[in-house]
Amino acid sequence: MKFIKNIFVASTAVLAMSAFTACDYLDIEPENKVPEENVDFTKIENMYEPVSGCYAKIRTSNMHWVINLMTNTRDGDIWSGRVDDQGEIVNLDKYVYNASFWGLNEMWSQYYNIIRVCNAAIQSLDSYAENITSDTDMKKYLSYSGEVRTLRALAYYRLTQMFGDVSIMHSNTQSSLRRSTREVVYEYILTDLEFAMTNTPKVRPNQMEHVGAASGFTAEALAAKVCMDKGDYQKALEYTNEIITSNLFELYPDYYQLFKLPGRLCNESLLECQVTDFGIGDGDYVGVDQFFNCCGPKITNSTTAVTSASGWNFMGYKASFVKWAEDRGETVRATTTFLKGGETTPSGDFVQAAGNPSNTNCWNGKYYLPLEQMTAPRNTYGSPNNVRILRYADVLLMNAEAKVRLGQNGDAPFNKVRTRAQMPTLSGVTVDQILDERRMELCGEWANRLTDLIRTGKAATVLASQGYTPEKAYFPVPSSQSDVSTELKLEPLTTLEEALGQQ
Amino acid sequence: MLFAFLFVLVGGILSMSAQNTVSGTVTEKGGEPLVGVSVLLNGTSRGTTTDIDGNYTIGNVPNDATLTFRYFGLKTEEVKVNGRSKVNVEMADDALKLDEVVVIGYGSAKAKDLTAPIAVVKGDELTNIPTTSPMGALTGKVPGVNILNSGTPGDAPKVQIRGVGSFSNSTPLYVVDGMFYDNINFLNNDDIQEMSILKDASAAAIYGVKAANGVVIITTKKGVKNQKAKITYNGYVGFQKAQHLLDMCNSNEYAQMLMEANPAAYRSILQASIDKYGGTMNEAAGIYNFGANTNWYDHMLRTAVMTNHSLNISGGSEKATYSLGMSYLYQNGVMDTDNDYNRLNFRAQLEYDATNWLKVGFTGVFSKSTQQMAHNHAWQAAFNMPGIIPVYDENDPATFPEKYASPGSVGFTNNFANPIASMDYYNSKNENYQAMTNFYADFTILPSKLNFRTSYGYDFSSVRGTTVVEPYFVSSNQQATISSLTKQSTDYNKWVWDNVLTYRDTYGKHSWGAMVGYSMRQDRYNWLQGSVNGIPTDKPEYWYIAQGDGDTARSNDNGTRYRSQSVFTRLNYDFDNRYLLMFTFRADGTSKYQEKWGYFPSVGAAWNISNESFMKDQKVFDFLKLRASWGQLGNDNVAASDGFASISVGNGSSGVFGANGVNAGVIVPGYQNTSYFSWLKWERVNETNVGLSFATLNSRLTADIDWFYRMTTEAVISPRIAFSNSTLAGNWGKILNSGFDVSINWNDKVGDFAYYAGFNFSTLYNRVKELKGLPYLIGGKTVNMLDKPMNSYYGYEVIGIYQTPEEVAADPIAVANGLEPGDFKYKDVNNDGMIDGNDRQCLGNYLPTFTYGINFGFTYKNFDFALSTYGQHGAKIFNRKRQLRYAQANYNFDRDQFENRWTGAGSTNEYPSAKALTKAWNVSSSATSTNSYFVESADYFRIQNVTLGYSFKNIKMGNYVMPGIRVSLTADRPLSIFSANAFSPEITDPEGWDTEVYPLSATYTLGLQIDF
Predict the structure, then answer these.
(1) CB contact under 8 A, A276 and B659
(2) Comparing C-alpha atoms, which of B201, B222, B121, B253 is closest to residue B892?
(3) What's the CA gap between A193 and A197, in Å, rounded?
(4) How confident is the model at residue A5, as a pLDDT?
(5) How do residues A325-347 score in pLDDT, each as one tens digit?
(6) Which residues of chain B have a CB within 8 Å of the CB of A377?
(7) Where are the domains of chain A?
(8) Which pTM was predicted?
(9) CATH top-level class for A9-72+100-273+389-500?
(10) Is the ipTM of this complex over 0.85?
(11) Alpha helix ranges (H) inside A130-276
(12) What residues of chain A lie within 8 A of the CB of B657, using their CB?
């Protein structure tokens, strides 16, 4: 009996020891994780995947509701729209900035998230390129790289618009992230855009292999905007001329529908953020989250399948701006742009007036989608619509302004925009008239008005009564960023070489 | 307890000398016979128990034999027979419990031999306390153990042992019959025989990488050899009532606040309520009467039932012991809608001496519970929603299925919700099934010296969650246009195989022991979720994904699998019961981290001063022991690192193309690849403990005093990745927790009156000591700053209220920010004439610096009484309920804000005006640039539990004598005293955010215990 016992004990001990020495018992892979190394860069047919990921990032990051709201609220024409929520955004209209406001941090980090995804996508594309054997694929590789660079440039452009001097993150592993001056960042942006202009097809986005992707002309239009900011009118003229003379683009005749479903990716479009609900009434929505919803009043219509939709009531046009527009005799642009409480839209939807009279009673009609165009029963305000980012109308007006500034006549491109808006044509247009036209045509779209006022120096006078001073042109660096990256407190770098030299 | 049987073997093989039958009577001090005393013949497994009159008889007892008499709570007596046939024994109180066997990791030890502070809580201290989780019953009982209870039926309390030493997870390790757990919610209070709480490193280090947050060893109930079946019913039934309801503004007060704040903005809302629901308003006369004046909390709360019933049978023969039990617990929620918790437990323990060298056994617990969840968001909605709409509005055609009034009906924005609808239109349920089993075999290789034990534990638990949304409409943000169903299935599958070899021996005055062990484990977790829209909702029988709209069906899953293997040892040495030394070491290997192996040593020493010869003649100390220990512990409750960067795929990482004109776009598959490498491993705690235990005044006064110093090194912190909202975790932090645990107890008996009084307290000094070189690290809710307590609230210190326009005009800060009288004045910390981020300060945190409990109880004849109290000091909570006003300025106000508001120069220097409360200067959206107005004291004192019982003993029912019936009345948490504007300053959010908190109720129960 003792013998059996000893055998048993000994064998258990041996078993334990053998398990102990079998060290690979602990060497198991984590569950539910696909290692990065497993991306097969020889599968050239998958080469668009990282590019598609960048468009997704534009959709999820650039279209954050607070970013849009903050972008639009400092131009003197638009304000938060609500006194009872997000007091810090109300303060933006008075140029009172709080560096620890969460929205500033959101804006900063979301744009750098886009940049980071684009940087990684360019790396992935380069890895595919190493396995490319055919010229067709090589062309695709260059074209795709151009698309990513255009999106990256867009992120930097938006950062300079809002923050002025920002950091160039040329590598995702870069640890020193000192800012560079706006001029240096422009230089960096233009390198990217020129690459895209050379390598991505110069067609309309709706003619691209992936319908709606950024084309060479998208890059060129963005480059023109950068040049306008720099005051390089010659270059801006060249870029815009090239887009116009391609004869590929035309203004969409119906200004109202331009911002609705029928106008999506029309021949006026240079870039849109595309969304989809797959055309079915429930299930997935791959879209822009609260982008439209944030800026929507309550709308009702008893005759449509979706009888009401209602948003958060943010983003209001100031009465002074509405009056200015109406005094100009605006017709279709006014009915499209101004979504007034207590009135009925051309599509027959009733807009409910603000309950709180201190809040706005006029919302941005460019974000409004008629209930009849919703995918019933989905009733999230504006959800199936794309977000317009760059339009041909902007190109025409930049072209007109560059011409006038260079002593040429800008009437032709200018009047195209006027005519579409059913406004009388003008001759011998001045810079001021063009700026006014831009103010009306592009209001509520990505802070064009604010950027115009700042680049022309008019902000100091036009916005002075609200508390604007030139040092308030740009948002402060968010404190949660400078807390972590203390080099953000240093003076910006002044050459691109230094910026690219940061490791 | 299992190891108690080892002691039975002490004494070796007896000589086969003359034998006779021994009988006798066992009595208590005072002559009362003792029923159920276990009488054992040493060196054998033979024995018996005393009967109703305290009598026993054992046959075939050798003349030179020794009998051992054991009775819980009394000092064990060993009596030499010396040829007598009648052995009467009087058993004395074991006030010092020095010979009590304490369960320690992978073994047991006598209390007097411990070098570590181990708190032992017996099961019967928990039985009558109406808590769903056994840990909840420990509140205030053990110094250094901080328990944060939740009011939500079925939710586990948060437990912190000796402060918080981790930013990631500070949950202690629970070891139930050898299995490792994160919580013990599946156990009934009545399943537990005893708990050992290992507080210091020398006790806990044997659990190595799991031990850093403290270890609680739980032994489920066991039978006793040679005992007749003992059948016990224990139960209570009672009701719970929420206390300290938040006092909100009524409609009239709300109107006054709004009209003071911004009449132009808010007049229309008030008017709309009057137009719709009646009332009168005359601004000039200041008259605001509302037809609708709803107190939402009144409609949300009810008195709710709680009950527990358990039945236990235990006993044993010469060779076997058994214990079986079942229990049922039901707790209804005080939220007046469908929310409750019920749990059914079965428990079994068997042990059998197969041969004289082999003992085999089994323990198992099967638990099934159902938790119907409460929608805690409704508590916050009720705080925010003013009373100017009714609960129901029968005239609104849009609402369905119930006619809940819509906040939009008076012009409230989408931020408002009807709280009653919010709690009612919520249907989410978790069903939990758990089976814990443990099989073991114990080999005696050298009797009473060397034994080997192998045990295999297996645990399976499964949580099945179902959430159903039925179509409803209250307002545009409180609606569901389409029904939906989400089902989740979560499985935990784990096993552990332990092998332990134990040796002990004595030689003269030396005694020593050695234990070596090897353990292998695997923990698996799997999660599967499916959801669908458009299911028929009429009956639960239809709630299947297959019944919904197939196009909307989605599924997702995840899982982890971790393996570990460990070797460990404990060596202890005792010289003459005076000098005690203990050394432990554990090597833990885990698959969870890239660095596989961690090593955790500890040493402990104790000096029993009272056993020294120079102490023989003194009368002051009956017992005096000095202890010291040091050890290292690990915390592997931190996330596993990604061994490699991974990419994200799916719709969220894919672009949409071709969404032009009338075409809906399509997804072009994409991926994003920006992940960061992280390289995490366990956190490490270095702990030193110095303690003193003594007994004096005839052992009536006993005390344990311990000082501890715990430094967590390599704590996981997650600094923000530059230029991102994401963070990257690494082992870069250090946290210090230090303090005293003190418990002082007085026990005495005067005639029939036995009483005790106890006082325990614990202090805590908690500081962040290292943050990867950063001066501070801002999280979503709180900040961690070097040399400040962890998770501190961060913001501006309110130093007063601007009283006059002159004061405003004279202050450049007020001018720059457009302030007016009634607004907060903040401290300009750096005196630069501006208030900005640099003026923020730490404003306190949610860790108390001082906690205490006072306990008192007595028994007199058939009465027993117990009172326990608990208090804490030094903690702060963040009144997130109020701070949420940043998102909606015209949320309702609480009455404290109304009654104390600034109304003009000199009215108050603490509370803001009504208008100030609607401005961003005073109510910042950012929780980490808040101000001290929103930080409130969490100090409280509470009567934790009062119990009064009456026992009927030895009730004769014909021939049957029922040993006892006890009837008791219990009030749990009947009284709390605190100043915070909260339901309770005890909340389960570890960072102390008071929002969406389910009220913690007082519970009053009637209990019944029957011994058959």
Answers:
(1) yes
(2) B253
(3) 6
(4) 56
(5) 999 999 999 999 999 999 999 99
(6) 481-482
(7) 9-72+100-273+389-500, 298-382
(8) 0.83
(9) mainly alpha
(10) yes
(11) 135-163, 182-199, 216-230, 233-245, 255-258
(12) 52, 55, 210-213, 274
